[in-house]
Design brief:
The chain is of the alpha+beta class. Helix content is 29%, strand content 39%.
């Protein structure tokens, strides 16, 4: 496993249709996984007055969040607790992999788009800054869970 520093967010474009975001969290894997799958925790790190209207974390289940910027919804395609989530997210397929690293967790988020243009539009929309903001909020939630 590559040694990724804690709190450093790395964003790459490994293929013509993918964006990959990697981040090491100073928390056990089950805690990091729960931040992504517990409807009570989602509003804490999504921010913007997010309301979880639906969240059925199982293959074939769906989610729907209402934010100040609109509705975000998708379907869970694969759920392997606490290792992996595969879900649709707006205009792409998103795979989240949670890898144990002692008491830390490496999160790898891969977004797969139908076209290079969709990928680039999403990159230009501020994926890196958005990820950094969201991950900083996740750090705060993880501190509360550990306390």
């Amino acid at each position: 496993m590559n040694e990724t520093p804690i709190n450093e967010t790395t964003v790459t474009k490994p293929t013509e249709t993918e964006i990959r975001v990697e981040r090491m969290f100073d928390a056990p894997r089950d805690h990091v996984f729960s931040v992504w799958t517990d409807p009570e925790l989602i509003p804490e790190w999504w921010g913007d007055g997010t309301v979880v209207e639906e969240m059925d974390v199982r293959p074939g289940g769906s989610y729907r969040f209402r934010t100040a910027h609109g509705v975000v919804e998708g379907e869970y395609r694969e759920v392997v607790i606490p290792e992996k989530l595969v879900q649709t997210f707006q205009n792409h397929l998103q795979t989240l992999e949670f890898e144990e690293a002692g008491e830390r967790t490496k999160l790898t988020q891969t977004m797969l788009f139908d076209t290079t243009e969709e990928r680039d539009t999403t990159m230009n929309y501020g994926v890196e800054e958005g990820a950094k903001r969201g991950f900083a909020r996740i750090d705060e939630v993880l501190q509360k869970i550990r306390a």
